[in-house]
Design goal:
The chain is an all-alpha fold and 484 residues long. It has one domain (9-89, 124-472). It contains 19 helices and 2 strands. The protein has helices at 9-24, 34-56, 64-67, 70-87, 92-98, 124-147, 151-183, 196-222, 228-231, 236-252, 256-274, 281-310, 313-333, 344-351, 366-399, 403-422, 432-446, 451-461, 464-472; strands at residues 90-91, 117-118. Strands 1-2 form a two-stranded antiparallel ribbon. α1 (9-24) runs parallel beside α7. It is globular.
Length: 484
């Protein structure tokens, strides 16, 4: 990991508040109510502005990785620009020429009657709200890249998200036991979230953090020194307990999409790590061991739950596919810039004529919803942004043999892949806490991009054996910050 060159009290306070924000974000219904996402947006933006102020007076140090992500920042700017353009008023004659559907199909609901100038967004307030939330996600990404600049910072971040997940799991399991005692019937686990699928998606990412802690705990013990993890009592046994709690809660949430996403994420990270396994034999063996442990826990706690859930696939998928079909028709009518970020629920009733028995405010497929709301333009920019980060993470995993760098990048990729897979059948990117966590993991996956060239040059100067010995002999990280 990048080590802090100069760290002052204010920077440590910012990092501590950032961790508190991550622990708090899932608690108020996944921050999916006005007060929740407003506090999340305000706090993350203030922390980023505070960091920028410290940087301006050279009280914080930018890592080399920060300067290697210029294309990623460009994509963020492009997405924000698109969303701003969606709320800008445009003369109605231009709208008639380039997007006649705004005056045709949508005028049936008297949305635009008597207007002289229109915006691309059907409901500008919804798009502005979406824009505010998206800026907070950018803030979270930048804070991750800025602040997680050392081994101890990495562990604090993983520990904060793991503790958040453990608390949610304990609360959810306790609630389930209480309900069973009162009604003699088991309920679906959802923690403090409204929906069990969103709770499960959150737990998927948290499990990635716990797995990272477990790998670092194993490495700490292996090095023969007393490191941060052992000193805080979170040795292998304790972290394994964390993992069991989160896995049990994940299974009891009974989310098929989350289960599939978890398996795909784990296999993807395992394959990425082992494409070039020089110097990674120890890490690869630990991943295999974790896979066997996870399979045992799933067999022990969740085999009946999984079988029962698979029986309901057909009914649920038919409803989703019906929503997708209607949504794709909206996209065909507004292909370039969409109907406005956050506007799906406003436009869907205009197209839906089948009187569906369920209330539809999301597509249950984040990819289709982005196409509907931001068109092919927004979809392409978002795809490039994510692919740039995945490509950077892939290069880090291939180039580095440093255990801490491997853990940071693989944990980041685990969270990213699990959310991307789950997005095929749900709308977790529209749950503020889950979206914020996704951008934390996205930032973590690229936070060591500066190591790529450095590792390549090292291999040309010395033998691979020497590098392996240097990595294996590195002492475990400690809580104390490096001295200037």
């Amino acid at each position: 990991m990048n080590e802090v060159v100069y760290s002052n009290l204010q920077e440590k306070i910012i990092f501590a508040l950032f961790l508190i924000l991550l622990v708090w974000a899932p608690i108020p219904l996944g921050s999916n109510r006005d007060i929740g996402w407003t506090l999340l947006s305000t706090a993350s933006t203030i922390l980023l502005a505070w960091s920028a102020a410290l940087l301006s007076v050279r009280r914080m140090t930018l890592t080399k990785s920060f300067f290697r992500l210029k294309l990623v920042y460009l994509m963020f700017i492009a997405l924000v620009s698109l969303q701003i353009a969606q709320v800008v008023l445009i003369p109605i004659d231009i709208i008639k020429q380039y997007s006649p559907q705004h005056l045709g199909k949508l005028s049936l609901q008297d949305i635009y009657v008597g207007a002289e100038a229109l915006s691309i967004s059907v409901d500008r307030n919804q798009t502005i709200e979406y824009l505010i939330r998206f800026i907070s996600y950018i803030s979270v990404f930048l804070l991750t890249v800025l602040l997680v600049n050392g081994n101890s910072r990495l562990v604090w971040l993983l520990l904060a998200m793991s503790v958040s997940g453990v608390l949610q799991s304990i609360y959810g399991i306790g609630e389930l036991i209480y309900n069973y005692a009162a009604t003699s019937a088991f309920t679906i686990l959802h923690g403090t979230f409204v929906n069990n699928n969103h709770f499960a998606a959150y737990l998927n990412m948290v499990v990635g953090s716990v797995l990272g802690l477990l790998l670092l705990a194993t490495y700490s013990n292996r090095s023969g020194t007393v490191g941060f993890i052992r000193s805080f009592g979170t040795q292998q046994f304790s972290v394994t307990v964390y993992l069991i709690l989160c896995i049990v809660a994940l299974l009891l949430a009974q989310s098929r999409g989350a289960g599939i996403a978890f398996v795909v994420a784990f296999l993807s990270v395992f394959v990425l790590i082992n494409i070039n396994d020089k110097g990674k034999e120890w890490f690869g063996r630990r991943m295999v061991g974790l896979a066997l442990l996870l399979l045992f826990m799933i067999f022990l706690f969740g085999n009946k739950i999984i079988i029962d859930e698979l029986k309901n696939v057909d009914t649920d998928m038919l409803t989703r596919m019906e929503i997708w079909e209607i949504s794709l028709q909206i996209f065909k009518d507004f292909p370039l810039f969409g109907v406005g970020a956050g506007n799906f629920a406003t436009v869907f009733p205009v197209y839906e004529s089948r009187h569906m028995s369920v209330f539809v405010n999301h597509v249950h497929n984040d990819y289709i919803q982005v196409l509907v709301e931001q068109g092919i333009s927004g979809f392409a920019i978002m795809a490039i942004l994510i692919l740039l980060c995945i490509g950077a993470a892939f290069r880090i995993l291939r180039a580095s043999s440093n255990v801490h760098v491997l853990v940071a990048t693989s944990v980041g990729m685990f969270g990213v892949v699990s959310m991307l897979v789950h997005a095929l059948v749900d709308f977790n990117f529209y749950i503020p806490s889950n979206a914020a966590y996704f951008f934390v993991f996205l930032g973590l996956s690229v936070a060591n991009i500066d190591k790529v060239k450095k590792a390549t040059r090292a291999r040309t100067r010395t033998s691979q054996t020497a590098i392996d010995e240097q990595v294996l002999e590195r002492p475990a990280f400690t809580l104390s910050e490096p001295q200037a």
